[in-house]
Amino acid sequence: MTDAQQEQDAAPQAGARFAWTRRHTLTVVVICAALILDTIDISIMNVALPPIKSELGFTEAGLSWVVNGYLVTFGGFLLLCGRIGDILGHRRMLIAGLVLFAASSLAAGLAPNAETLIVMRAVQGCGAALISPMTLALLARIFPEGPRAKAIAAWGMAAGLSGILGLVLGGLLTIGPGWRWIFLINVPISALVIAGVLLWIARDHRPARRTQRFDLTGAVLSTAGVTLLTIGIVQSSQTGWTSPTTLLPLIVGLALLAAFTLHEARAKDPLLPFTLLKIPNVAGANVTQALVGGGMFAILYIATLYQQEVLHYNPLQTGLGSRDPRAATSSTSSARPSSSASAWP
Q: Rounded distance, CA 195 to CA 250, Å?
């Protein structure tokens, strides 16, 4: 470890005078780039769904798993991966997550069929679950209280902008080299981020706390419960809410989440300490985030399909939220009046 790296890690110590240097700026850039890889892969997929559906032969219900496969494993393993980083080291686990993310992106970009793509999207979500909590933990480790607010503000801004950037970049890649490059482009970018982590972020120097447990049971229960609930909701669009293929996964999913709640209440090292939820600000923030996230992801999925399959936008126009006026004359759907497209903002 270099002297500069030792100084960087020593910054948060009590009484230490902190001086923001070029190294700290590069550290924030690298960490934000790692976070953007995670968050951009949620929105970047939406504009490419119609060509993916056409080329790989997805059904309507199966197509939703191109998005849900990523989100379910990302959300399900987020708590567990955060604990793994606390025990094994945040920098080490950030690199591991980036490697897993890059490898699964390569496999997804080369996927020969729908099943392979869905599986690789789920593996991508696991890599993202390793990356995201490590980025925030590293900012907390490197920066003391005052400068930490500045670094976390940049982190939050990167997460917000990546949603918009994902729609535009997804449109450009889809109408350009093709939808597969939405995944393949992650490989060189991940390599650059890994190089930045190795150059600008100091090694994990604290000894691992072996007394803590991973709480694998909690992670399996929560992930399986959320997955089954999602399957039930997706099935409802095809078979109805009263069908056994809808009710069974919904009931089992709710039962697993109930078991997760009981397990966490008794666990020595729970993934989700319920004492946190007793703090009004924490509980309110989580409820708000759940409502905002649920609404945003749903509208992104529905709106992008509507724009392309009903209004006949191309992927770039969908990402930009605007349409070339000449597209109305080239539409193959003569039954659709041109005014319906112009009514879309």
A: 44
Q: How far apart are CA 312 and CA 204, in angstroms?
A: 51
Give the CATH architecture of domain 3-9+21-215.
Up-down Bundle (1.20)
How would you write 91-160 as a 3-class SS string?
Answer: HHHHHHHHHHHHHHHHHHHCCCCHHHHHHHHHHHHHHHHHHHHHHHHHHHHHCCHHHHHHHHHHHHHHHH
pLDDT tens digits, 128-166: 999 999 999 999 999 998 899 999 999 989 988 887 888
- How remote is the C-alpha of 232 from its chain's centroid? 22
Most confident of 31-45, 278-292, 304-318: 31-45
What residue ranges do the domains of the chain occupy?
A: 3-9+21-215, 217-258
Is residue 232 classed as helix, strand or coil in its secondary structure? helix
How far is 225 from 231, CA to CA, in rounded Å? 10
Closest C-alpha to 60, from 231, 232, 238, 296:
238
Query: Could you read off the pLDDT of 180-194 as tens digits, one per residue?
Result: 999 999 999 999 999
Which residue did the predictor score with more confidence, 132 or 338? 132
* 152 Cβ neighbours under 8 A, 6+ residues apart: 136, 139
CA angle at residue 185 from 130 to 114, to 5 degrees?
Answer: 80
Reference 77, options 183, 216, 190, 256; nearest CA is 216
End-to-end CA distance of the chain: 54
Does the pTM surpass 0.90? The reply is no
DSSP letter assigned to residue 76:
H
